[in-house]
């Protein structure tokens, strides 16, 4: 039985030019950790800390208390 070769479709130009995320997952996670510590290590799920870390990093805010 013969199988047909399918021609690969090229991605549209709009998908090729998607911007890179501003901050990596690790950067956001570390920033969220420091925010969590600033708040006294509450027992919540951490979503608010994550969102705040993203917002602060996008705004150029300083979160990490020391130079890496």
Give a verbal description of the structure.
The protein is mainly α. It is built from 3 helices and no strands. It has helices spanning 13-16, 25-38, 47-58. The protein is elongated and about 65 Å long. The model has no long low-confidence stretch (mean pLDDT 77).
- Our count of helices gives 3
**What is the CA-based Rg, rounded?**
20 Å
Shape, please? elongated
User: Which structural class best describes the helix and strand composition?
Assistant: mainly alpha
Average of per-residue pLDDT values: 77
List the helices and strands and how they pair.
Elements: H1 13-16, H2 25-38, H3 47-58
Which short descriptors sum up this protein?
68 residues; mainly alpha; 44% helix; elongated
Q: Could you write a compact summary of the structure shown?
A:
This protein is mainly alpha-helical. It has helices at residues 13-16, 25-38, 47-58.
